[in-house]
Write a structure and sequence with these properties.
- By secondary structure, the protein is an alpha/beta fold.
- About 35% of the residues lie in helices and about 20% in strands.
- The strands form 3 sheets. It has a 5-stranded mixed beta sheet. Strands 1-2 form a two-stranded antiparallel sheet.
- The two termini are about 25 Å apart.
């Protein structure tokens, strides 16, 4: 349990069963759920688990406050507190301070991107790498989120979730880029990024645009797009060959990040 103002937040820590002699990357992995549902234990059913079991990372998953009772900025505050805790206490779990990474699926990916922007702007924590998978980044309609009727997540559910998260700010031009990262106007000096997304899901356009903006700002970033994938397809069909290929690609990028991306703390 870690303090966030007067609130106390649960932080789930996963460590490799065999401890490495050398310090390892520390990954803050943020669960999805449209900002309104989900739990830190969702990491056991997502891409995050392999980063610990197969690739030796230490993973921290925050039980952030959900928008049903606590709209923006509660979730982001909780995730930022968890990031600072990982920075300050990572040595206790053999985490190297210059390889703090963030990632997550869906709304968790959106929070990961927002966290990168917030950390850069505050100048307190350096993030080495980001992995926002099919992230929920834009409160406004895009060509792929408008009139989308794909399985699992669609336009109606997307509007409802953003309205619950933003409350009175929803549908206005006063929404912060820390709430909706697609509203960011300066992508310089953000961490290198890898993501993947399906081409029939609502978040297709905002994911591709996020990577495009990062590249334009000189940030190393790449995205793999999978044809016919709806939202969270990889979680629903983990045994399919194309999903196994996507997982292998994701893990290759993580291993590349371990070898090449470092961000010493201030």
């Amino acid at each position: 349990m870690i303090p966030v103002g007067e609130h106390r937040e649960k932080l789930l820590i996963l460590r490799p069963s065999v401890r490495s002699g050398a310090p390892v990357p520390g990954v803050l992995w943020i669960h999805g759920g449209g900002y309104q549902s989900g739990t830190a234990k969702d990491v056991f059913a997502t891409r995050a688990l392999s980063l610990v079991v197969k690739h030796g990372a230490v993973l921290a998953a925050p039980e952030y406050r959900l928008s049903r009772k606590n709209p923006y900025p509660a979730a982001l505050q909780d995730c930022y507190a968890a990031l600072r805790y990982l920075r300050d206490h990572g040595a206790e779990w053999n985490v190297r301070s210059d390889q703090l990474m963030v990632g997550g699926e869906s709304a968790g990916g959106g929070l990961a991107a927002a966290l990168c922007i917030l950390a850069r702007d505050r100048g307190e924590v350096n993030i080495a790498f980001q992995m926002p998978l099919y992230p929920m980044l834009d409160d406004r309609d895009t060509p792929s989120s408008r009139d989308n009727h794909a399985p699992n997540w669609n336009t109606r559910r997307n509007h409802k979730a953003w309205k619950r998260y933003l409350r009175a700010a929803y549908g206005t031009d006063i929404v912060s880029c820390y709430a909706s990262p697609a509203r960011c106007t300066d992508y310089r000096n953000l961490p290198p990024c890898y993501t993947f997304v399906g081409d029939i899901e609502p978040f297709y356009c905002e994911t591709v645009d996020y990577v495009r903006h990062l590249r334009a700002a000189g940030v190393e970033a790449s995205v793999d797009v999978y044809a016919g994938w709806f939202h969270a397809y990889d979680i629903f069909f983990p045994a399919r060959r194309v999903v196994r290929t996507a997982v292998a690609r994701f893990e290759e990028h993580f291993e590349y990040a371990k070898r090449h991306y470092f961000a010493p703390q201030y």
